[in-house]
Amino acid sequence: MAKSPTGNVYRDIIGEIFAERYVKGSTSFDFERVDLEKTARKMDVTLPKNLGDVIYALRYRIGFPDSIITTQPVGMEWIIEGAGRAKYRFVLVRLNRILPREDLVTVGIPDGTPEMIRLYALDDEQALLAIVRYNRLIDIFLGLTTYSLQNHLRTTVKSVGQIEIDELYVGIDKYGCHYAIPVQAKGGTDQISVVQTKQDLAWCSQQYPDMRARAVSAQFIGSEKIALFELTVEDNAVKVVEERHFKLVPAAELDLLAIKSYR
């Protein structure tokens, strides 16, 4: 097998696909999933059986190689969007990083997470989704009564292709309005995804046109805090509607002075 020039096979492959199609000044161009296999064979490297992991890793974990980043104009970045079944599109968009604010107050919440869940959660994302669910953080954050409908929902969006929603909630407010609430969870060093937010909202509009869609992202801050964001799409960019930070603590350790100040 050929040695990876960048130390990461996924970056090598996507860098090669980008170089073959990119023309200076272009803002979007397409490629297909089969191109990942073709490029891997040409470079004599091994791909995983799950080709979707290549795109997932590039979007959320490892990022693009320098050969792609250096073509980005100031204030812009390349993202990979779905463009149909087994099809993808490089799109140049405004730089948009959704990161927890460092100056935001943290709200203490009595921890209702079962110890068995904390003991046997298999990964950060699974643990985060469970913690959010058992502590009703979506209800607290949005001020709605919500119910978890399904997690790791694999479905399709017209003109985008297959997507996966980490967890889908439905909710209702005091006026009887119904809500579709897609939640994405990011643990460890994974970044909140602009692409995933756009896809989740597009699917809600397609599947539940009569419901109001509110996209939520959850992210661990260190080992003790959870940041929740409500996100929306405006001018083809994802914007933060609201952000709150929560810390789950045993009831006996709640700060009574802080509880009074919450009033």
**Could you describe the largest sheet, including whether it forms a barrel?**
8 strands, mixed
Return residue spans where pLDDT drops below 50 for at least 5 consecutive residues. none
Along the chain, the helix and strand elements come as HEHHHEEEHHHEEEHEEEEH
**Terminal residue distance:** 63 Å
Description:
- The protein is an alpha/beta fold.
- The chain folds into two domains: 86 residues, no CATH class; 156 residues.
- Helix content is 30%, strand content 35%.
- The chain has nine helices and eleven strands.
- Strands 4, 5, 6, 7, 8, 9, 10 and 11 form an eight-stranded mixed sheet that branches. Strands 1-3-2 form a three-stranded antiparallel sheet.
- The chain starts with 8 loop residues before the first helix and ends with a helix.
- The model has no long low-confidence stretch (mean pLDDT 88).
Set out the fold topology:
Blueprint: H1 9-21, E1 28-32, H2 33-43, H3 52-60, H4 66-69, E2 76-82, E3 87-94, E4 106-110, H5 115-120, H6 124-134, H7 137-142, E5 145-157, E6 161-172, E7 178-186, H8 194-207, E8 212-213, E9 215-221, E10 225-234, E11 237-249, H9 256-261
Parallel strand pairs: 4-11, 7-8, 7-9
Antiparallel strand pairs: 1-3, 2-3, 5-6, 6-7, 9-10, 10-11
In short:
The protein has 263 residues and is an alpha/beta fold. The protein folds into two domains: 9-94, no CATH class; 106-261. The protein has nine helices and eleven strands.
